[in-house]
Amino acid sequence: MSQMRKDIFTNRWVIVEETNTVQPSDFTFTRFVRNTTFCPFCETHEATTPGEVFAIRKPGSPANAPGWSVRVVPNASPRLRIEGDLGRRAEGIHDLMNGVGAHEIVVETPAHDLSLHQLGIEGICGVLKAYKARILDLEGDHRMRYVLVFKNHGEAAGAHTVSHSISQLMALAVTPQAIKSKLVTCQDYFRLKERCIYCDVLQQELKGKRLVWENPHFAAFAPFASRFPFEVAIFPKSHNSAFSRISPEQVSALAETLRMVLQKLERALGGAPYNLSLQDRPFLNPRAGYWKTIEDDFHWHIEILPQVFRITGFEWASGFFYNPVPPEVAARCLSL
Q1: Most C-beta atoms within 10 A of its C-beta, which of 45, 198, 217, 246?
Q2: For residue 200, what are the contacts with CB-CB under 8 A and spacing of at least 6?
Q3: Nearest to 195 by CA among 235, 239, 233
C-alpha cells in the first residue's frame, strides 16, 4: 500500500509508493545529449552575447573577451527587462504591473563539453561566487523583491535550445508564491516553538536513513515528502537566512557538496535531466509584517529535482504529487 506524506515546509501532500525493489534503471528518459552546433556561450564567442555584467577572469584580461572562467550576461531574449518602472495598477478587480525585472545567464564554464558536475571544486566555487555577487548587486535595486537562481539540465528539464552548461538568474518585483508558502510555514513554526523548522528537520535527517552526503558545513538528503524520484535537498548546517552571507569556507564546502551530489545522481541515473534551484529569502526592504522574524525562522537551501517521471493531469489538477520511489530507497541508491 502507498503512503501519503505531508511536506512539513509547504503542507503539500505526496503519495509515496511503499517498495524496496525499485531501481534507478527502472526509469526511462531522454538522456542529455550535447549540441555541437555553434554556441554563443563558448570562449572566443563573447561578441555574440550581450555585454557581461559580471565575470571571473584572468588578471589583465579585458571584459567581453577570452580569459574568463565564469561569465554572467543578460539573457538575449529576457522574460523580464531591467528598464522601466513597475507601473502597478488595476484592471478592474485584477492587479497588473509592467514586466520589469532582470533575466541573466550564468555561463558556468568556457568549455562546451563540460557539465557542472564535471568541474573541479574551484570551478564550482566560481559559479557560486557569481550567484552571490549578482544577488548582492540586484538587492540594491529598490524595485526588486526576490532573486531566483535556477538551472535546467537536459531537454526534459527545460534546456531545449542550450547545451552549454549554464544557470539562470531572475530578479523579480514580487516574491514567488512557492517561497511565500514556505515563509508562512517558517513563521508559524517559529512562533510556536521559537526554533527554525529547517534546523529541526536537518538535525533529524543527519541521524536518519535519508542522508545522502555531508561535510562539516552542509548536508544533502532525500526529503521525507520528496515530490520527485531521487529528489535531493542541500541544507547549510549553520543557520542563515540569506545565501549572500555565505563565507569563503562555506563556498568551498558547498561546491564539494554540489559536485558529490550531482556526480551521485549522474552515476545512479545515467545522465538524467534535472532542475536545480536556490531557495533564498526575499530582500529585506522595509515593509511591515513578515520580515520582522525572517532572520530567525528562514534557512536558505538548494533543491535538486531529477526529471525521470512525468507529471500528469493528476498532479496539475490536485496539487498532490506521486512519487514511485520512497526517499529512503532513493538515498540508499545514491549513497552506493
Answers
A1: 198
A2: 189, 193
A3: 239
Q: Give per-residue pLDDT as tens, 286-313.
A: 566 667 889 999 999 999 999 988 888 8
Greatest Cα pair distance, the chain, in angstroms, is: 63
**CATH superfamily placement of domain 8-335:** HIT-like (3.30.428.10)
Q: What's the CA angle centered on 322, arms 318 and 327, to 5 degrees?
A: 140
**Roughly what angle, to the nearest 10 degrees, separates helices 121-139 and 248-269?**
120
Q: Whole-model pTM above 0.70?
A: yes
Q: Work out the angle at residue 219's Cα, subtended by the Cα atoms of residues 281 and 158, and round it to the nearest 5 degrees.
A: 60
pLDDT tens for each residue of 23-48: 777 666 666 666 778 899 999 999 99
Domain-by-domain residue ranges, the chain?
A: 8-335
Residues 112 and 164: their CA atoms lie apart, in Å, by 5
Q: For the chain, list residues with pLDDT below 50.
A: none
Taking only Cα atoms into account, the Rg of the chain, rounded to an integer number of angstroms, comes to 20
Distance between start and end Cα atoms, the chain: 27
- The DSSP output letter for 304 is E
Task: In whole angstroms, give the CA distance from residue 293 to residue 183.
Answer: 10
Grid coordinates representing 91?
A: 484592471
Residues 6+ apart with CB under 8 A from 64: 46, 47, 51, 52
DSSP structure string for 125-181: HHHHHHHHHHHHHHHT-TT--EEEEEEEESGGGT-SS--S-EEEEEEESS--HHHHH
Please provide residue 104's backbone torsions phi and psi, each rounded to the nearest 5 degrees: -125, 155
